[in-house]
Design goal:
It comes from Streptomyces hesseae. InterPro entries: Endonuclease_7, Endonuclease_7_sf, His-Me_finger_sf. This is Endonuclease VII domain-containing protein. One of its GO terms (molecular function) is endonuclease activity. The chain has helices at about 40-55, 60-70, 100-110, 115-125; strands at about 10-15, 20, 85-90, 95-100, 130-135, 140. The protein is of the alpha+beta class and about 140 residues long. The protein starts with 10 loop residues before the first strand and ends with a strand. A hairpin with a 6-residue loop joins β3 (about 85-90) and β4 (about 95-100). It contains 4 helices and 6 strands; from the N terminus they run ββααββααββ.
Length: about 140
């Protein structure tokens, strides 16, 4: 049996962090008996984040932290920014690493195609990729 905890009026006790907090630190919930959510905002956000990574990628927070530590706490591509986005193969669902927003968006814009990424790298290095017109509608690609 749970021990009853006295909570002052206008406050609620969070069962996760076990702190008594004012109603201003809780979300409204019309379906609950007292009109407030079960967990404080901070704990609710953490629980939702944990649940999302577990559901979407099969990762616990410990596994996600270990993955970021393996990368040295930086994005796996640019090696500069803080990694915040889990990158995964859209066909298999396998997690590849953790990227910064910009690098993750860049992979998405390239549609996760390695050939497009190679051409983009060549372009950035000054090796312009220009097909040669051989006949009407027929192009020879540079080797």
């Amino acid at each position: 049996m749970r021990a009853k905890v006295l909570v002052p009026l206008g406050h609620k006790r969070c069962p996760d962090c076990e702190q008594i907090k004012p109603h201003g630190e809780w979300e409204r919930n019309k379906t609950s008996s007292d009109g407030w959510s079960s967990y404080c905002r901070e704990c609710r956000a953490r629980r939702n984040r944990d649940s999302y990574f577990r559901r979407k990628y099969g990762l616990t927070q410990e596994e996600l932290q270990a993955l970021m530590e393996q990368q040295g706490g930086v994005c796996a591509i640019c090696l500069a920014a803080r990694p915040e986005h889990v990158d995964h193969d859209h066909e298999t669902g396998a997690v590849r690493g953790v990227l910064c927003f910009s690098c993750n968006a860049a992979l998405g814009q390239l549609k996760d195609r390695p050939d497009a990424a190679r051409r983009a790298a060549d372009y950035l290095e000054g090796n312009v990729w220009k097909p040669t017109l051989v006949a009407s509608g027929v192009y020879r690609l540079p080797s």
